[in-house]
Amino acid sequence: MIESQPTSLETADTVELTEFDTALLAAGDPGIVSGLASLQAQNISAWFGDHKVLDRVSLLMPAGKVTALIGPSGCGKSTFLRTLNRMHELVPSASLAGEVLLDGHDIYDASRRITQARREIGMVFQKPNPFPAMSIFDNVVAGLALTGLKVSKSDKADLVEESLLKAGLWTEVKDRLRQAGGGLSGGQQQRLCIARSLAVKPRILLMDEPCSALDPTSTRRIEQTITELSTDVTIVIVTHNMQQAQRVSDQCAFFLAEAGTPGQIVEHGPTDVMFDSPQDSRTLDYVNGRFG
Ligand SMILES: Nc1ncnc2c1ncn2[C@@H]1O[C@H](COP(=O)(O)OP(=O)(O)OP(=O)(O)O)[C@@H](O)[C@H]1O
């Protein structure tokens, strides 16, 4: 089959909530379900303008497991991650081919709304990005309005506690919930961002190098949080830290873009196999730090 680049992003959609979205969400959209889910990328290709950066990448990210995306700089890991919750299309020149199945349903299907994908598939970024002047409490619930979810005032307090507990931050902040999020340490801010993502009850959590701006102690605390979360939410994490991939992930996918070609997955499999006895010598060289 010859693959052609889409002339425009057929997935182009508005990020703003329409009245229709808000009404459906408030009414309890039957299309939005909760609970553990798998994510399956099928033949994902991605472009920025004419520059093809991913070539027919397929990967199953099983429910309740942590999948680590590893590989040298520029091989398309972050781009791939951003195709998994429809963030790639926010770049004006971006285009995409392929499917991303959330529990078997394509998130790019024309009948599905972009807000639904964003609610079910949350994301935590490299640099902690809480709203600095906003209170810790308000930071946690900030995502509710953006995804159109309505929660009563009394339920909000429970949701804040539950989300901070899951993110491993509750005991450190429970007595200062009304203080500004910007007053927390970098590691605490990142756990606050995790709590904010968890408050909308995502089924998948995407994490793009979530510890790269943190010290070793904060990094270990986030890794512990990732391990605890994986019973509730399927996690996909991009990391350059091979020890971290070994510590937190159940399976790894090794990406490579050789000699200017678009990124592809060289191989993927259980983390211990990928580190101890991978099939491809390039994987062995990479995980042993011989390049990248
Ligand atoms: N917004 C953008 N516009 C144009 N090109 C981009 C954009 N973002 C990424 N690219 C290009 O896409 C390719 C893949 O980049 P990407 O950030 O996905 O790789 P990566 O493996 O995540 O790299 P790193 O590990 O350094 O973060 C690179 O060639 C990069 O220059």
TrEMBL record:
Q: Which SMART domains match?
A: AAA
- Give start and end of each ABC transporter domain: 39-287
Cellular component (GO) terms are: membrane
Which BP terms in the Gene Ontology apply to this protein? phosphate ion transmembrane transport
Please give the start and end residues of each transmembrane region.
Answer: none
The question of whether Nucleotide-binding is a record keyword is answered with yes
Molecular function GO terms recorded: ATP binding; ATP hydrolysis activity; phosphate transmembrane transporter activity
Q: Which InterPro entries match?
A: AAA+_ATPase, ABC_transporter-like_ATP-bd, ABC_transporter-like_CS, P-loop_NTPase, PstB-like
The alphabetized UniProt keywords are: ATP-binding, Nucleotide-binding, Translocase, Transport
User: Pfam families recorded for this chain?
Assistant: ABC_tran
Q: Which CDD domains match?
A: ABC_PstB_phosphate_transporter
Q: Which PANTHER family does UniProt cross-reference here?
A: ABC TRANSPORTER I FAMILY MEMBER 17 (PTHR43423)
Instruction: Kindly provide the name given to this protein in its UniProt entry.
Output: Phosphate ABC transporter ATP-binding protein
Species for this entry: Glaciihabitans arcticus
